[in-house]
Design brief:
mainly alpha; two-stranded antiparallel ribbon; two-stranded parallel sheet
Length: about 300
Amino acid sequence: LVNGQTLQAFSVTTSDPSLGTLDASALLAGVAAATFAYDGWIIATSINAELKNPKKNLPIALVLGTIIIMVVYITYFIGLTGGASVDTLMNEGSTTAFRNLFGNIGGTLLNAFVVISCLGTLNGLMLASSRTFYSLAVRGHGPSPEILAELDSRTNMPNDSGVVGLLMCGFWFFYFYGANLTAPIFGAFSFDSSELPIITIYALYIPIFVLYIVKEGKSGSKFKNIVMPILATIAALFMVFVAVYAHGIRPYQSAAAEGKFAFPVLFYLIVFAVLMAVGALFYRKKPVAPKTEPTA
């Protein structure tokens, strides 16, 4: 803040230097990208059965955890932009800023902490993905619940579900690489699979919030049963708008200037609809009684 680089970084992010006027498109794109950083709270809800008094403690943990992460990320951004210019950060990454602020040793240590943080996130995602098909199977839903609900006798882990989860992760890693990290190989169906699915979850929450208001709004706390769901709905709608703008309107405008067509969010919705249709094929009106005891 003292050397002015933080303010300069924000102005470069949100304005068009050629026009000298405020342009929110880059900022909206940044908001869409930030959703990936806050995706972990969804995974946290999967351990509610293992918490003491989860109805009380889980909401507290989610709210406090989100606030802490916001403070950490904002502080992290201020620290980076105070240690290097925007051009340097874009071309050389955060390492240069760390070294400018803390020297070679300090910069290396901070990079190590970043790696550890990423590994921790990866660990949480692995735990969640290995249990995704298992959580459906134990309820008698999904493909082959009698197989995917089995637990290993030694580790008490759903190995079969883990293998399927690993294959799914491998497929989507290949897609993300082919669509975003190299020359797009999927043509019009190349979209950012790290952001759009998360914002889709936000969109799916909207009818849940509305139904909650209809069901609980006439009783209990008005703040809890009406105000909070309304605020959550507004936030979800804003994220949907951000996704459409950053992954639809903005790419369309850029492509149209070159006489081409691009609207990634549209083709994402096509893929999403197809996957939902495939998932519907495995819907069971009468759940199958799975075998859940450990197997050798």
